[in-house]
Amino acid sequence: MTHHLTRKAALLTAGFILLNASANLAFAREPAQVNYQVLLLRQELSVQKNGAYTDNIDRVIQPLTMAGVQSQSQMQIGYPANFAQVHILEAYTETASGVKHSVPADAIYTQSSPDALSAPFLSDGRIQSVVFPAVAPGDTLHIRYTIHYNHPYLPGIYAISTLLAPNVPVSKAQIILHAPTSQKLYAAQQGDAWHAVSIRHAKNMTSRSFETSLNKVSYPPLGSPAMTQYAPLAVISTAEHWTDVAEAYNQLATPSMQMTPELQKAAEHIAHGATGLDAVKVIYHWMQKNIHSVSINYANAGFTPPSASSTLQRGVGDSNANAALLCTLLHAVHIEAAPAIISTSARFHPYPAVDPFAFGHFLVYVPAYHLFLDPTSRYAGIHSLPLEDAGRPALITGKNPRMTQTPLPDLSLPLIDQHTQLRLSASGTMRDQTVEIRRGYAAQDIRSALMGSKGRMLMKGLRNGFYEQGDLGQLQSMAFQNREKLDQPLGLKTSAVKDGLFIPGQSVAMIMPTDTSMAKPLQAFTAESVRTTPSLINPSNMQSDISLKLPQGYQPAYLPKNIDVQTSVGSYSIHYALSGQTLKIDQRLKLPEFVVSAKDYPALHQLAILSSSSTREGLLLVKKLKR
């Protein structure tokens, strides 16, 4: 499992510098400041006839601020030590006046990668660290190095790809792939920033190259998808079709899924006589509970999974190992299944050309029921993928390889369906009885947050959350329905008393009770009215109905206007109605897609403003005068 994939050092080192300062712009805004620039980034990959290959990298980077010095003065080069070697050819700091300070030998050192330390039986990853001396803003950092690979990560497939991060200036970037003439080369790009460069062909070799520069800097705002979704990306590969990757992976994975008497016996014991879809459910949920998961960077580990029998014995594996084991257990009860490779980054279309490291996580595909299963996810139901797996490009391996897409979240029923009964007293105390039904990833989120808590510890945690939200009073009770039944909706029933909502008097004011959770998915889109990049949202279908019993003798001075807006990206509505002493508030939000284009962004901004303003509506109650 590699939910946060570090790019492959051999084929994708060029992308590391360009991506380094903005790895997670979907959730954190970068300061509007250029901290460093790339003066030169050149990566040249040469494939030999015997299948080995060498990656030559040349970088020149200039830190412009102290933040840039801190982020760039130590470079790390990751690689799989079991079939690759790194050689630093040259590394030095050059001051603005032209003085060179070479990196001393003791400032170049090798250490195990984090995944090799946590799971050495799954990864032999190493990190070569280079610490530049005497670095100040305005200096330049120069490094040339090679990584030699004894064989490719996947049999017969070589690729190189580089992404331009829009907030890092690049004076010159170039990628080159040389291969024997017996191998054709395929090149493509996302956007038109990269330019194909003609190269003189050497004898018995063919080459493809791209180069570019990026001087105009922009800062992707909060709520942007992965940059591979929209930023300039160039790819050169020896594979023409994604199915070539699937077939190469099959060569590595098929021996790992060999049936053994131990696996056959285990599958029959787990299934306990179940067949068909029932057997899939039982075996999948057994894996979730009994086989633990660790994160592995496949750039450091390679794509060959350990044998299914060894994963069963250890009780732990990465997503590749766990997918191989789940497939093998399903095969034992006569159910066809195959690993499917995806990326968990917020990217929803394939690369413009074939690069195996566009992927970094493994699921299992069961064709008889068109199911994608993630055995590394503890709380996913059989029909509901975790949010980071949904709607992504998926490469199905096995006997019938093909590129497809994992299912989007099922919005046919509300992911969150909340029913609330409120009773407000004239003293300012409110009794709250709420029943909430959660489905899909919304149920997974709560089940994961509970993390096995029970009894007093559970209530303590829930009460702490109650007070952290600013509520006064007491959370009296909470009950669950289907907490352990992952294929069923999760029910939550809460009872609470909230104090101090207003000071009693002839007229009293308070915040209108609404479901504030509806505004949360849209908070990132309230500030800007226009965007030039795509925006990332979580597909949602949420509804809430609130019934508020008002104190005897009080009536609202007015009711807010009803809102009912349908847009190209979704819909939002909130309706208010008064019947006797009961105020009813019906609120709904539906957002069907992950990515909203810059063209459609104003509609998303409109929904964000409407949902946000609804949570701040005031309720003014006026006491009726007695006649």
UniProtKB/TrEMBL annotation:
Database matches in Gene3D superfamilies: 2.60.120.1130, 2.60.40.3140, 3.10.620.30
UniProt entry tagged with the keyword Endoplasmic reticulum: no
Statement: the UniProt record of this protein carries the keyword Protein biosynthesis: no
UniProt keyword list: Signal
InterPro entries, alphabetized: DUF3857, Papain-like_cys_pep_sf
Signal sequence, renumbered to the chain: 1-28
Domain DUF3857: 50-191
Highest taxon above the source species: Bacteria
Protein name (record): DUF3857 domain-containing protein
Organism: Acidithiobacillus concretivorus
